[in-house]
Amino acid sequence: MNKRDFIKIAGGGMLSSGVSNWFKRSTDDNKIGDNSFFEKGFYIWTRPNVKENSKEIQQRYRKYAEKGIRGIMFESDSEEHFSIAKEAGMQAHRWMWTMNRGERYLLDNHPDWYAVNRKGVSCAEHPPYVNYYRWLCPSKPEVKDYLLEQSREILEKEYVDGIHLDYVRFCDVILAVNLWDTYDIVQQKETPEYDFCYCSDCREQYARLYGKDPLTDLKYPGQQDSWRQFRYDSITEIVTAIAGKAKDHKKPISAAVFPTPEIARRLVRQDWSNWPLDAVFPMIYHGFYQEPPHWIGKAAMDGLRVLRGDFPMYAGIFLPDFHNKEEIETGILSAKNAGVRGVSIFGNIDDTILNIIDKHREF
Questions:
Q1: Which residues of 248-285 are buried (b: 16+ CB within 10 A; e: fewer)?
Q2: In this prediction, what percent of the chain has a pLDDT beyond 90?
Q3: Is the pLDDT of residue 26 over 80?
Q4: pLDDT tens digits, 307-318
Q5: DSSP 3-state assignment of 192?
Q6: Which CATH topology does 5-99+140-183+229-359 take?
Q7: Structural contact between residues 335 and 300, judged by C-beta atoms closer than 8 angstroms
Q8: C-alpha closest to that of 229 among 243, 210, 251, 249
Q9: Start-to-end C-alpha separation, the chain
Q10: H or E element: which one contains 60?
């Protein structure tokens, strides 16, 4: 299942302090310098086509590099694609689904690892929204160990330059507004069937910190700041653990995240501005939020203000959201003017797109 299929349909224990900032880099280390692994310019997300022959891959990746693409986030493994991309002068990162994992092995052998909503329903049995939405619970040590092992397998491969996390969050408690019509749903408030996770591990760990069961003792759990923070921190702990593994292998870690820190926290319990990353790639898909192309720059500025230079940002754009070439250039220029280090693109990278990239390659 491709990462963006959902889009295409539409068109170890908790941190004992309960605070997510404890791992922040020191003041001396947290400003972006010219020695950042991630280069200024354009990156793309793609799935390698294993049916292509080497000559086809070489020709295309050589053209990508010549036009100004600095690196590729590959959704699946292919030593041939990774190696050819690197030979062409681009970086090759492995893009990993993180909390959304629907492996048959996990569903058959560890259904208890999956997140449970406020109605007591596990997404292992009844996935929300779409069938591939199978969300693991970040509070379970076994889940963290499993994801660390998956990360280790990726990072140990010599042809992999770095690891790029995706779906590193909870299920959407509220969908982006443009998806409401698609699913015949109006989500002006949080509802129990989409509110995760209320498994016994989450409830017990929260109760140890705050003396209350979030399911039975909180009248309005969606409005309880400590319960929200608990879930932000549970995802942050997963990212921090994988970041440590990446550091052990001397490779960078990045993540595809929701457009702004505020939207990420509100819609999917994701606190990405407090993660120990080497770069962040917010998916600023303006069409999902029924916004114009120049909103991309506004959203990027929101994130940059919160980051304060802790690590570089690459504004992610979704080509099907644009109606013409002029809109694409508007989106790119708004991101550049906001001060991002680069732009990452998802969609069909044809000659028209490559010429736009070439035109705006300098950041």
A1: ebebbbbbbbbbbbebbbebbbbbbbbbbbbbbbbbbb
A2: 89
A3: no
A4: 999 999 999 999
A5: helix
A6: TIM Barrel (3.20.20)
A7: yes
A8: 210
A9: 33
A10: helix 54-67
